[in-house]
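Onboarding guide, step 5: your first structure request.
Type a short instruction followed by the sequence, for example:

Predict the 3D structure of this protein.
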Amino acid sequence: MKNVDFLDELGELALGSRLKRLSDRLLADAAQVYKNCGHDIQPKWFPLLALLWKHKQVSIVEAAEKLGLTQPAISQFIKELVGVGLVTSTPSPQDSRRKLIVLTEQGKLAIANMQRMWNAVDEAAKSLCDESGTAFYETVQNFEKALANKSLAQRTKEQLSYHVANPDVEFLAYSAELAPHFKSINAEWIEDMFVMEASDEEILNDPGRVVIEQGGKIYFAKHRTLGVVGTCALLKKDDSSYELTKMGVLAKSRGEKIGEALLGHVIEEASRLKIENLYLLTNKKCQAAIHLYLKAGFRHDQSTMENYGSKYQRCDVAMRYCKN
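The system replies with C-alpha cells like these:
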C-alpha cells in the first residue's frame, strides 16, 4: 500500500513545513556531495564563500544585505569560517572601525578546488528544476518577492479580520431559494446610482442559467438579525478568467463592514478555484467600492478595460486582482 504524505492533505496550510523539509533534504544532499568530493565544508557556508569569491571583500552589513540574512547570522558564519582558517577580517582602509571580511589564501585555494564540483551541482540543480515540469527557480524568486511585499503573518491577519470583525455574518452558496435576493440586492444599488442595462437584467432575472450553469459561483452574506443582506458573483468567462460582478450590500446594513467581509470570502473562494485572471468592471462614481477593491488587492488595469470594458455602458473603471 502506497504511503500517503499527510502534508499533501494539509496543502498550503503546511507550506512552511514543506519548504523546511525540502530545504533540509537539499542541504543534506549538498553535505554528502562535499563529503564525497573530499571537501570539509558545511553547505550553510556556501553563499558567503561564493560572495567573497566574487566580490573579494565585504563588510558584515553588505553581506547581510546581499544574502538576505541577518547580521547576527553572518557574524556566526564568519566566526566559524575564521575558526577553520578560510576567512579573516581586516580594517577598512577608509574607516578603521569598519571590518572587511576576506578569504585567506587557504580559503582561496579551497574554493578554487571546488569550482568543478560547484559547476556539477549547478547542472544537477538545473536538471532537477527542469524535471519538476515548471520554471521552479523563477517560481521561488516570485514567491520571495510576494512574501517581501506582504508577509504570511500580515496576510493571515487580513484573512482573520474578515471573520473576526463580522461574527454575526455567515456566507451561503447559491440556491434557487436565494435567487430573489441576488436580484433585489443588486437592483437596489443599480437603480439608485445608474440605469438598469440589458446585461444587468439578463443576469439578475436568471442567475442560475447565466452564472451557475456556465460554471460560475454566487455567494450571499447573511446577517444574524438582518437576514440576507449581501451578494456577489464569479462569472466564468473562460477556463482561466472570471469576472467578479454584481457585488452589493443592502443600504440598511451598510456600516457593518459586510461588504469587506463578503469580498474577502469571495477572493478566498476564487483562490480555491485557482482562477488565474480575476477582474471586475465598475464606475468612478463607486468610490467606496473602488477603495474596498484596492484594499483587497485589485489594481486598475488598462488591458482589462480594453478586453471587457464594453460590457456595460457605465463602465469606466476596470481592475484586476493581483495576488502580490
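Each response can be followed by summary notes, for example: The longest strand covers residues 227-236.
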